[in-house]
Design a protein that fits this description.
single chain, 339 residues, mainly beta, Immunoglobulin-like, five-stranded antiparallel β-sheet, 2 helices, 4% helix
Length: 339
């Protein structure tokens, strides 16, 4: 199977006077090694392509019979979306699916704005009916406003107060290195679907200076015991700190480069196609020393014999992946538990 999937994104290099423009995100499949995704050729647009793990629905994918695939796009930051053309669209049998998202800046007197793009893959297990959402962070982009000489001082007063929806200026995008998160791909089993190598980031794992003794990622059952009973709700606790006894998953935590920081905000995600998990992700504050406050997930197994879960930890600031762990938990039906 030579199939490769890409998320292509395009945004303008300059904005017109009313600060309104559009972001384009396109899902594309290619089938030959020499093929490259089609980039935007519109004058003034900046385009980048992100290679994704192969998504079910393409040619010859062994997961096609088990899953149906959809996708949606989420945009956040210092821009105001004018319409909601980021709805869920089917990827089954599709070579190309495009989202066009009109926007304007939230402030007409800003000197710097940023936005983030998240490409979400929605998979439904046809056998169990369970949905799972895997977000792929396509990076954070910075918009720098370059005011026409001599107008900046007046622009804040005149354009910001008298004409709140109109300004005059040109913008350029910063050339910071691209960084994006790759959620652990618990959905895809082919070996050529391994996550991409880590991109350069601001706080990539480098040392353990913050905690000489080393810390661990702990995942444990708050209530109940193994094996889990299908359709019964369990609570899973997750933290980073001293090694706990009787964990169901986790491992040694590689400390990021703390520099002068005393705490970091994390995104922690727990996902599964074999169970209902809520919430799918949550935030947490990791102190430089000591234990992180525990976060909790509700898990309802939907498959007997075993369920697979994926635990991923990201830096919230730049969405860089710090750690990921795969959990495999035995399950039984309620009838078998009563014997």
């Amino acid at each position: 199977m030579n199939e490769k999937d890409y998320a292509n994104k395009s945004w303008p290099g300059k904005l017109p006077k009313d600060w309104e423009s559009q972001i384009t995100v396109e899902f594309q499949r290619t089938y030959r090694p020499e093929e490259q995704p089609t980039s935007s050729n519109i004058n003034g647009n900046i385009s980048r392509s992100i290679l994704l793990p192969t998504v079910p629905g393409g040619e010859g994918n062994p997961d096609n019979e088990l899953y149906e695939a959809w996708a949606s796009v989420e945009v956040g930051g210092d821009i105001e979306l004018l319409t909601r053309d980021a709805e869920r669209k089917s990827l089954d049998g599709q070579v190309s699916v495009k989202w066009t998202i009109p926007f304007k800046l939230k402030s007409t007197a800003t000197q710097r704005a940023s936005f983030t793009l998240i490409f979400k893959v929605h998979l439904r297990n046809k056998k169990t009916g369970v949905w799972a959402i895997t977000p792929y962070h396509l990076g954070q982009e910075a918009i720098v406003v370059d005011w026409i000489p001599g107008t900046r001082g007046n622009a804040y007063l005149l354009f910001g107060l008298l004409f709140p929806t109109f300004s005059l200026g040109a913008i350029g995008f910063s050339r910071q290195p691209l960084s994006f998160a790759r959620m652990s791909n618990f959905l895809l089993k082919a070996q050529n679907n391994q996550p991409l190598p880590p991109q350069a980031g601001v706080d990539t794992p480098l040392d353990k200076a913050g905690t000489p003794e080393g810390r661990h990622v702990n995942a444990w059952l708050v209530n109940g015991q193994l094996p889990l009973i299908v359709d019964r709700k369990y609570q899973v606790g997750v933290n980073i700190g001293s090694l706990r006894q009787n964990t169901i998953g986790g491992g040694a935590f590689t400390e990021p480069n703390w520099r002068a920081k005393t705490e970091l905000e994390l995104l922690i995600a727990l996902n599964s196609l074999d169970a209902e998990v809520t919430p799918e992700w949550t935030t947490a504050i990791l102190p430089r020393y000591g234990d992180m406050k525990t976060v909790f997930f509700d898990v309802v197994p939907k498959q007997h014999e075993n369920i697979k879960l994926s635990l991923s930890i990201y830096l919230k600031r730049d969405s860089s992946l710090l750690e990921k762990f795969h959990l495999r938990l035995p399950t039984i039906r309620a009838a078998a538990a009563r014997r």
